[in-house]
Amino acid sequence: MSAEGLEAYFEGARTWDADRYRDAARSARRAWLVAAAGWALALLSGVTLVLLLPLKRVEPYVIRVDRTTGVVDTVPVYAPGAVAEPAVTRYFLTHYVTVCERFNFATAESDYEECGSFHGAQRNQAWYALWNPHNPASPLNVHKDGSSVRVQVQSVSFFQRASGVTDLAQVRYLKAQRAAGGADEQVTHWVATIQYAFATPSQDVRVRRWNPLGFKVIELTTEPEVQDPGPVAARGG
User: In a 3-state reduction of DSSP, which class is residue 131?
Assistant: First the structure.
């Protein structure tokens, strides 16, 4: 091969290598651009999810069925300070007294936790102190002999303050105590004076199961109710 031919051959080889290098560099740049775009989209998606998190919330609701017509509707969520329907408040007061004043070893733990869902921090401290096993007056100690207490609410009365606020109620109820293995009940009459409010429902799913509307018992006072023995018949002389 002549010198001119060899020079042309080597020039072609150099050109081929240069083209291969340019193609490889172009492919690498394209791959980096695609990867960068993918990372940018992933980062943008993450930022979008973070920005949307405050908008996500769980709305509790209670389904109510009319016993007469069978119509189903939803009980609304009451914001703090809102005035609930008397029927809703009456239900929560009745349920609270029934669960929190009764005692049965089979349901004691569940009743204790459920009652706590209706308390604020201060009221829950008093509730814990009452149920503390070291407290001689704790239901766990009073009924360790296997006795039980059944509660039946008789009436619920609402009271309006001079300011026009209705946040007080009196609940009259019966407590029927039964000895372990016995059939007879010792019935006593009681009155519970309750100050209540509707607060923001808890974010805890377990608490919302018991208390979806944020009903709170602020103060509770219970005392035996003295029953009127009725008129006494006069004795003849």
Answer: helix
CB 195 within 8 A of CB 158: no
Helices 86-101, 108-116: inter-axial angle, 10-degree rounding: 140
Question: Amino acid identity, residue 236?
Answer: G
Expressed in angstroms, the distance from the first to the final Cα of the chain is: 160
Q: Quick one: tokens of 110?
A: 């569940």
Cβ density class 221-236: b for 16+ within 10 Å, e for less: ebeeeeeeeeeeeeee
pLDDT band per the 50, 70, 90 thresholds, residue 237: very low
| Domain residue extents for the chain | 3-54, 79-224
Alpha-carbon distance of 170 to 156, in angstroms, equals 6
Q: With bands split at pLDDT 50, 70 and 90, how would you rate the model's confidence at 77? A: low
Written out in words, the top-level CATH class of the domain with range 79-224 is alpha beta
Angle between helices 108-116 and 121-131 (to 10 degrees): 160
